[in-house]
Specification:
Number of domains: 1
Shape: globular
Helix content: 25-40%
Radius of gyration: 13 Å
Order of helices and strands: HEEEHEEHEEE
Largest sheet: 6 strands, antiparallel
Structural class: alpha+beta
Strand order of the largest sheet: 1-8-7-6-4-5
Distance between the termini: 18 Å
Number of strands: 8
Length: 116
């Protein structure tokens, strides 16, 4: 998936904030903790393919095992939004070292081609 497709999906299906969500600490000292980040992603986002988004110039897709490094890099730019391509779950990670997630409405399923 290219940057244009990721940007289009994220702006359409992950606009604004998460709504009511409980933020958790993901940092230990001044460093992001891999175990905590992986646990947050595992709790809210199913599947192995993920979308990472800060803005239209700083976004990508990748596998779950690449997530921590991608998130660390993108946090240098700003707040990172992470979702699976079907938007069944969403996570926001803030540069302050906190993050939160939500599961999407089970009645809405986004297909990989962008149709609902």
């Amino acid at each position: 998936m290219d940057k244009r497709q990721i940007t289009s999906l994220m702006q359409r299906l992950f606009y604004g904030d998460l709504g009511p969500a409980e933020y958790v600490h993901l940092a230990e000292g001044n460093e992001l903790n891999r175990v905590r980040v992986d646990a947050l992603l595992e709790q809210f986002i199913p599947g192995d393919q993920l979308l990472f988004f800060v803005n239209s110039q700083n976004c990508s897709s990748g596998r779950r095992d690449e997530a921590f490094e991608k998130i660390q890099r993108l946090l240098q730019v700003g707040r990172v939004k992470v979702a699976d391509p079907r938007f069944e779950g969403k996570v926001v990670i803030d540069p302050l070292g906190v993050g939160a997630g939500v599961r999407s409405n089970p009645s809405f399923k986004q297909t990989p081609d962008g149709a609902a």
